[in-house]
Design goal:
- The chain has two domains: about 15-230, Heat Shock Protein 90 (2-Layer Sandwich), CATH 3.30.565; about 240-370, Ribosomal Protein S5, domain 2, CATH 3.30.230.10.
- About 35% of the residues lie in helices and about 20% in strands.
- The chain has twelve helices and twelve strands.
- The chain is globular.
- The chain starts with 13 loop residues before the first helix and ends with a helix.
- Keywords: DNA-binding, Isomerase, Topoisomerase.
- Homodimer.
Length: about 375
């Protein structure tokens, strides 16, 4: 078992009052800096339904969602270090407030740290003070293309839980940390009192389920994702995942929505569909292409209102705006591969969103497209 000592963990305790003395005290005193707000908020967020996503108001506690996400992403990131990983199972017991995340493949080696004399799983999941040492050890094993860097990560879920247990099997060393094939299971019970909650409500479960589906989009056909005993949507590729969003737009607008997909390189995939929201970057080229191909004037700002861009990006050693990791801040110079958007892809986008941009003159639009090919 790997557990942080649960004594004196209340922000009002003497340990927390001396926040400057220990990492745990600092985190408990200022949780918003590490996991986000611990108060309820209501926002419009995408959640998962049977065969698509829906954008609706959800009331949840960002901090609780963050600690769940830390454990889930930790599990999903294992795919980067061990491509043989093909199973991820998430179980949420609403009555007990217990969350369990299982994944196969190689986990943290069950061996002693040469200097600390502690088992690596214990350091990985428990010891806040060993964050830099274990991060350095991981970096030496492989280039990180994960969400584990520059934060306490999964240890935060441990700290904000009343129970936290790790089981992991290391078949190479024939050891089990708590034989057979490699696997890891992380089970924890969030300290709901810290989030002013008494139970895991429907909105929180819906949000967690959506995040699990996101991971399914990342794993694709190479992995099976199970949520509360049921296999979730199976995605052959990232485009299949993006279509879950466009189905929602189709349902709301009562018209068929197409989606344009482009694999830019081995680390970046882009899907573009019509939207009533706003977005960025390639809007200028799309506007220019609309004006040239259709002979209809459209402003860049108008194009942005109708672009729905979904991106799958894998990058090495990402950096974030804070320990809560709300936004990626890696400078574009750090991207190994450039994002070159071809003219053909832009033309496909124009065809995709033309009916949304010019609904008032479909006949003229159709003639222009046929004339200019």
């Amino acid at each position: 078992m790997a557990c942080i000592d649960k004594e004196s963990r209340s922000p009002c305790s003497s340990a927390a009052s001396n926040a400057g003395e220990t990492p745990r005290g600092r985190i408990l005193l200022r949780p918003q800096d590490y996991i986000g707000s611990i108060e309820k908020c209501t926002r419009k967020i995408w959640v998962a339904e049977v065969s698509s996503f829906t954008h609706r108001a959800v009331t949840y506690v960002p901090g609780l969602y963050k600690i769940f996400d830390e454990v889930l992403i930790y599990a999903a990131d294992n795919k980067q270090s061990d491509p043989s990983m093909d199973s991820l199972r998430v179980e949420i017991d609403v009555h007990q407030g217990l969350i369990s995340i299982y994944y196969n493949g190689k986990g943290v080696p069950i061996e002693l740290h040469p200097e600390k004399g502690l088992y690596l799983p214990e350091m990985t999941f428990s010891h806040l003070s060993s964050h830099e040492e274990i991060s350095g050890w991981l970096s030496n094993c492989y280039e990180e293309q994960t969400g584990r860097r520059n934060s306490y990560g999964v240890k935060l879920a441990n700290l904000f839980s009343t129970e936290f247990a790790v089981e992991t099997v290391d078949s190479r060393r024939e050891k089990k940390f708590k034989q057979g094939v490699n696997w890891t299971r992380i089970t924890f019970k969030p300290d709901l009192a810290k989030f002013c909650m008494t139970h895991l409500d429907d909105d929180v479960i819906a949000l967690m389920k959506k995040r699990v589906v996101d991971v399914g989009g990342f794993l694709g056909v190479t992995g099976q994702v199970v949520f509360n005993g049921a296999t979730l949507l199976q995605f052959r590729n990232f485009r299949d995942y993006a279509l879950c969003y466009t189905r929602s737009v189709s349902k709301n607008t009562k018209r068929k929505i197409s989606c344009v997909y482009h694999r830019v390189n081995g680390s970046l995939e882009v899907c573009v569909a019509p939207s009533q929201g706003t977005f960025q970057q390639i809007a200028y080229r799309v506007a220019k292409c609309c004006n040239e191909r259709l002979q209809l004037q459209v402003e860049e700002s108008e194009v942005k209102k109708h672009l729905f861009i979904i991106v799958n990006l894998v990058m090495e050693n990402p950096s974030f705006n804070s320990l809560a990791r709300d936004a990626l801040t890696s400078p574009h110079e750090s991207f190994v591969l450039c994002c070159e958007i071809s003219d053909d892809f832009v033309k496909h986008i124009v065809n995709c969103i033309a009916s949304t941009l010019f609904p008032w003159d479909s006949s003229k639009r159709t003639k222009a497209l046929k004339r200019r090919g």
